[in-house]
Amino acid sequence: MPNKTHPPEDDERLGFARRILVLASITISISTSVVCLMLVFALGVRSAVVLPIMLGSLSYLAIPFMLHLGMRLRLARDLFFVVTIAVVLVIGLIPQEGIIFGFVTYLPVFICIAGMLYEKKGIIVLTLISLIVIALVAVGDMTRLPIQRTIEGPGSIVTISVRHSIAVIFSAVLVIVAMGLFDTMLARLRTARDQARRAAESKTAFLANVSHEVRTPLNAILGMAEILRSSDLNEDQRRKVETITESGATLLEMLNDILDISRLEADRMPISPARQDSSDLFAGIERLWGPIAEDKNLRFLIDFDANMPEAIEIDAQRFRQCMNNLLSNAIKFTPEGFIRVAARWDDRVGSPTRLVVDVQDSGIGMSVDAASRIFDPFGQADDSIMGAFGGSGLGLTITRQLSRMMNGDLTFKSIAGEGTIFTLSIGVKALETEATRIPHNPHPANGLRVLVVDDIPTNLMIAATYMRVLGAQVDEATSGAQAVELMRNQVFDLVLLDLHMPDMNGLWVLEKVHSFRRKPPPIVMITAGATEAEMDRARSLGARDVLIKPLTPRVMESLLRSYAA
What we know:
Distance between the termini: 46 Å
InterPro entries: CheY-like_superfamily (IPR011006), HATPase_C_sf (IPR036890), HATPase_dom (IPR003594), His_kinase_dom (IPR005467), HisK_dim/P_dom (IPR003661), HisK_dim/P_sf (IPR036097), Sig_transdc_His_kin-like_C (IPR004358), Sig_transdc_resp-reg_receiver (IPR001789)
EC number: 2.7.13.3
Helix content: 55-70%
Catalytic activity: ATP + protein L-histidine = ADP + protein N-phospho-L-histidine
Pfam families: HATPase_c (PF02518), HisKA (PF00512), Response_reg (PF00072)
Subcellular location: Membrane
Number of strands: 13
Strand order of the largest sheet: 2-4-5-7-6
Largest sheet: 5 strands, mixed
């Protein structure tokens, strides 16, 4: 039989009701027992008189115990009030207790407790039962001999009974009114929450659309600049091309940060741990950032812990994103000196295993006041930072949130004028080393036949040029139908397929290739902007990966290496 799933709100309500039930049971038991002991030892009341009361109060301790053993909350709740009614009635019928000294006085309190555990119907039923108990205790008092009554005269008994009844009814009315007000307030809060959620989703969708519209021309700008930079240019031309590349990269970085922070705010940033070779992970970081640091005349150092497992389970994409943010900041704010990356393995007993990476620079550092604002979204350590160094002020905010989503954290130490050390920790799992390793291939594209599919000629030319420079044999297609026809009749080692194309888009192509008699080639989607739902749909249809434009030579080289074996 399938397990029933409850919405988070229901789970929270059940947890709240459980805590109230346990707290009420323990409080009643302990407080009443203490009062009974004080009556015996301080006031000299006979133990035979208080013993029934103490036994009744101690019976409440069974409720938390049975909940701990797995009793259903609804059954435990009903048992709590059955015990309550029984104890009040039994003690009220004892000659020495009656309408005055019995527990009838506490019935309004139990009505209030019921308001946190029952719906309105349950409150009404419990109120009627309480009124019946009051009446029975009153009748019991009136039918006793005068010398056994706790109060003189039937008239006084009736008067006190009416007062208790009014208190019970008033408590019930008050609880029901409060429940109505609470439900109204809760409905308003839910409406406001839903509106905020829809607004966040609309913002995310808008930003995704803007991303697509901006990335398409940006891909052309950066791609053509990269192709130009690899051609024979004089010094002045090369400087101008590098200016185009740097400006485009800055725009891309800001666009990525804004999109990522919107996804994090909307809880749309998935974490997908997978097997990863730890040395390859840091070798890729060194290949990417080493030349960038050297271009600025900075020493780039990487220290790799000898105890680091060869294979770990980690979301490599999100980890690289965190490292890219930290290293981008380190290089940006270090005019001279060094950048040092130190990776170590933390497997202390009693704590979760973590990959810990220190990113140290000898840059400008931060004052104590500036450091207090470093994780604020869109914040900079100082107002002059934006003008001097640029940036969106989102990188560190995103990195800390991502690290916490991966069961880690981001901390730092900084001294103004001396430098900063950021410590990134990620919760990871060590994996067994595979028996064989794929050897490094210095020429990943040799012998590969690649099909590039894109409806925009500029994007098609850039991707195809990158592939040819890396040594691949490239075929081109400008539509989904043309791509399907080529894949039906020819054999490819890899297909780069644009997700968004008019008429027959990339998802349509993925569906079509499943109808082939032979196994389709590995297909990697490329897009200027896609929702998480679209990317999940692409992967479910067989896409190996989804790459976000603009594409770069390093990304293409890394992609080819993964399919070269």
